[in-house]
Each structure stands twice: as structure tokens, then as C-alpha cells.
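Researcher: I'd like a candidate sequence for this fold, 404 residues long. If you have to choose between options at a position, lean toward the conservative one.
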């Protein structure tokens, strides 16, 4: 008989072992707070890995979902639907984009972007112009194509042979980028802030160089903003912070505020190559997802919300600096908006999970970005009091680890 309240042990019995979740099972969320099966309360600075842009169960998102649920759930792509068209219009009005393709995740949005880049070059030049240049330490998803473009070999181990024609260069190294790009390059793919790679913001000159090189070689500049997009940077999209405009941009995570959706945004020039039959998605443009994402955009695009992200960034950074002044555990505190990383000092390298586990014991949920970096990606509207309380809990966790 199915258990109405399954515990962590059930995971090992019935789930594929590609994850190893902690013993805590959250069952309810409200705002930036979560409660587990035992009724313990947590402050959420993880945000579902930068997904829950407006926290848990935001009343306007709940209402948008309920309203759409009473109308229409799914259509094939033989038809379009009003929520998808409305969301696409908003994205085009708010960004550089002329055209939008909807998917269900960041990986699918990136898969579409990489296929578009190859198709664009194939149309103009031929198959020889197929090479993709990306950065080491990048992360673009878990499909075979996206892990191959991603610059972390551990994700392709055991799955090779991987797709070819992909070159990885050091992040923020202009000379290496210039050396890698040629007439055979169809795209440069970059995260404006590397998320999984350690919360590492791009240098202004680096993104400007990427734009210049794409223009010189008729290649597409693709920005993966799956993690940085939809207000997390303090602008609607991080490219706006830099003033460097891509040809193609991918967005997901915060776009749905917790409801699965992804999108590829593109200029008319780039999008024109994906003619009927060249790409598709059964669930892409789902009315439920698009209705929720439309409401997320309405809220996050408000100037007061974006200004609030910048203010919360400074508050969070100040707290982290104060913790470091007392305990000396961080070598660097960096990030953009409410995507923050605290890199551990040499004495604590490799022990990021110890700090995450201790924080959970103190009622605070944070993330890692590799073994050496603590990552925080809370709700964009997290109350300042919750930031203060969470940082008090994190400091207790830090003390617990260094005194263990």
C-alpha cells in the first residue's frame, strides 16, 4: 500500500539513485519559509536553485494558476493559445528579442539555442561552420548536447562519445576567447554569471569581446540566463546590467516562479532559420505554465521589485562580510543581485557541504556551487527580517563547523 506520508527511506526504494536528498522532506511553503514533515521551520535562501523568484505559494501566482486550470490545460502545437502569445509578447516588449520559443526547462531552452546556432550557420555557410565556443566551468543543462557544451567534464563521464565541434576556454580570458574563435565558429555561449561554476560574474570587457568576435565572424552570441534571468541580477536580465546584447538568450528557473517552463529568446535574424519542422516541444507553451510565467513577469518587471533586489543584495553581502570578519572562513564574497556566492578560504576548501548541512540544522537552507562555494539564491522579495534571521542562523552554522 502506498504510504500517505513517505519518509526519506522510500526514496532509496523507488527512485533512481541519481540524487541523494537530505532526510528533511518539506511539505509546505509560504513566502521565504518552509516547514517539513516534523513541523520544523526553515528560512529558504536556496529558492529551489534560483527558481522560486517570488517565494513559495505567492498568492498572485496561485490565483493565476487556479484561473487557468479552470479554462485550458494543454493543446498540441497544431494550435497556439492565449497565455503563450501573451507571455511571448511581454518577453519581446521587455527585452531585445523579436521571437520566442517555449520549452519546459533551461536544458531544453539551451538545446534549442545550440541547435538554432548550428542551423543558422548551416543555412548561411554550410556544415563546416559548426563550432561552438563555451567557457570552462559553465553549466548549460543535462542533455547530452548541453552537458557537452557545458565546461565540466564530470557531467560527460560515462556518457561519451559526446557531440563534437565544441571548444572550451577559460572564463574571463579574452585572449583565449580570441584564439578559439574562427570562421568555423557558429556561436559563443556564455553565462553572464557562472552559477554552478562558482557564482563568477563575467568581466565587462570579456562580454564586450565576445560580442565583437561574434560580429566579426558572423557567429551568434548566446547568453545562458537560466539562472541569472527574470530579476535575479537586479535587472530583468543580466545582459542589461552589462549593456551587451546577445543574439539568443535562454531563460527558465525564475521565469515560472516554481512552475516548469523555459524559453529561448532570439532576434528575427537568428530565429528565421528554425522553419516549420526543424524543432519542437510537446509541452512547450503549455497554457498553465505560460499563465503563471506571465504573472511572474508582471510582478518582477516592476521597478520597485528590481530596486528591492539590489537593496537585498547589499544587505546579504554586508551580513556575509560581518560573518567573515568574525570567523575568517571566506576568501571571496561575490555575485550579482540575489545570486550570491561565498568562496571558502583555503583552510575550508572542499567542505562547502559541511556548511550547508550545518545551516540546515540551524533552520537555514543554502546551496553549494561546487565544493568550495556557498551559494544563496533566495526569493527576490524575501523580507529583510528573514535575511537577518537567516544570516544569524548561518553564523551559528559557521561556528558549529569551525568548532567541530
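Model: Candidate sequence:
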Amino acid at each position: 500500500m502506498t504510504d500517505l506520508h513517505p519518509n526519506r527511506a522510500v526514496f532509496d526504494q523507488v527512485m533512481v539513485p541519481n540524487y541523494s536528498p537530505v532526510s528533511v522532506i518539506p511539505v509546505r511553503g509560504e513566502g521565504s519559509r518552509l516547514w517539513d514533515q516534523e513541523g520544523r521551520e526553515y528560512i529558504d535562501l536556496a529558492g529551489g536553485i534560483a527558481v522560486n523568484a517570488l517565494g513559495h505559494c505567492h498568492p498572485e501566482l496561485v490565483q493565476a494558476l487556479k484561473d487557468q486550470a479552470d479554462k485550458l490545460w494543454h493543446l498540441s502545437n497544431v494550435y497556439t493559445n492565449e497565455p503563450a502569445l501573451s507571455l511571448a509578447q511581454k518577453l519581446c516588449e521587455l527585452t531585445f528579442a523579436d521571437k520566442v520559443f517555449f520549452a519546459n526547462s533551461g536544458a531544453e531552452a539551451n538545446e534549442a539555442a545550440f541547435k538554432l546556432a548550428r542551423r543558422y550557420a548551416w543555412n548561411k555557410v554550410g556544415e563546416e561552420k559548426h563550432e561552438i565556443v563555451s567557457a570552462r566551468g559553465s553549466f548549460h543543462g543535462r542533455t547530452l548536447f548541453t552537458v557537452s557544451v557545458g565546461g565540466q567534464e564530470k557531467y560527460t563521464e560515462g556518457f561519451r562519445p559526446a557531440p563534437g565541434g565544441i571548444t572550451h576556454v577559460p572564463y574571463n580570458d579574452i585572449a583565449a576567447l580570441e584564439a578559439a574563435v574562427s570562421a568555423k565558429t557558429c556561436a559563443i555561449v556564455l553565462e553572464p554569471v557562472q552559477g554552478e561554476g562558482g557564482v563568477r560574474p563575467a568581466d565587462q570587457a570579456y562580454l564586450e569581446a565576445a560580442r565583437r568576435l561574434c560580429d566579426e565572424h558572423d557567429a551568434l552570441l548566446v547568453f545562458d540566463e537560466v539562472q541569472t534571468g527574470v530579476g535575479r541580477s537586479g535587472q530583468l536580465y543580466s545582459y542589461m546590467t552589462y549593456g551587451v546584447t546577445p543574439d539568443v538568450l535562454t531563460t527558465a528557473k525564475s521565469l515560472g516562479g516554481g512552475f516548469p517552463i523555459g524559453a529561448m529568446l532570439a532576434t528575427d535574424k537568428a530565429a528565421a532559420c528554425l522553419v516549420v519542422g526543424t524543432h519542437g516541444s510537446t509541452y512547450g507553451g503549455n497554457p498553465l505554465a505560460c499563465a503563471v510565467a506571465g504573472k511572474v513577469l508582471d510582478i518582477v518587471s516592476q521597478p520597485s521589485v528590481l530596486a528591492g533586489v539590489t537593496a537585498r543584495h547589499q544587505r546579504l553581502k554586508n551580513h556575509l562580510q560581518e560573518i567573515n570578519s568574525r570567523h575568517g572562513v571566506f576568501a571571496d564574497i561575490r555575485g550579482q543581485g540575489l545570486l550570491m556566492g561565498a568562496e571558502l578560504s583555503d583552510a575550508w576548501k572542499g567542505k562547502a557541504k559541511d556548511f550547508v548541512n550545518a545551516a540546515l540544522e540551524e533552520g537555514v537552507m543554502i546551496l553549494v556551487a561546487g565544493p568550495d562555494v556557498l551559494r544563496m539564491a533566495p526569493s527576490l522579495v524575501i523580507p529583510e527580517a528573514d535575511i537577518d534571521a537567516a544570516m544569524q542562523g548561518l553564523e551559528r552554522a559557521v561556528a558549529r563547523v569551525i568548532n567541530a
